[in-house]
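Q: What structure does this chain adopt?
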Amino acid sequence: MSSGFQQDLDQLQPGFYRVTITMTDTTTAFPTTDTGNHNDGGCTPNTWDYFTTGSLPSTAATALSRARGNLRFKQVVNQLTGLGDCQIMDFTITEANADAQATSLLFTVKYDRDTFLPLTGTKQGAVTVGNDAAGNPMDTPAKVIRNAVAAGLYNGTTESMRVYDPTNAQGTQQYVTANSGTSNSALVGLVAVTQISGTTLV
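A:
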C-alpha cells in the first residue's frame, strides 16, 4: 500500500563544484616577488601562523608575500559568497613551505541554490547579466563561479592584517595591498570549475 508520501520537487538540491586555480605562470600572472605593483603571493588560504615554528617565513619579503596571497584568497571568498550562500571545503594546495608561493589551489564550493546563480542574459534588478571577463557567455553555474574566482584574484584591495616579523619572531599589524599581475580576462583562463556532484531526487 502506498504511504502517501511524496518527495517535494522544490526542496533544495545542492550543487558541488571543484575549483582549480593554476598558478604556475610566475612570470606575469603570479610573480613570486613584488615587481612594484604588490602582485606577488599567489592565492592561499594559509596564513603565516598555519606553519610550525621551524618553517615560518624567513624574510620580511616572503612574509608580506604570504599575507598578499591570503588577502587575495579572502577576495575570492568574498566573490563566491556574493553569489549566494555557500560552503567552501576540501582544500588541496601545493606549496612547499611558508616561504614558497603556491603553484596550485583546489577547493570545493557548495551552493544550496545553484539554480539561482546569475547566468548571462538573466535579470538582476534592472541589470541584465553579461558575459564573463573574457567575453564568454556564462551559461552554466560552473562558468559563473569561474568568473567570480577570477574577479577575486583580479580585484586589488588593501586591508590591515597580521604579518609575520621574522626579526622579532612575532606577528605585527600592517596594511597589506594585493593587486593582480595580469588582466581579469587572462585570469579566467587560469581557473577551472567542474560540477562534481549533485543531489538527485527519487
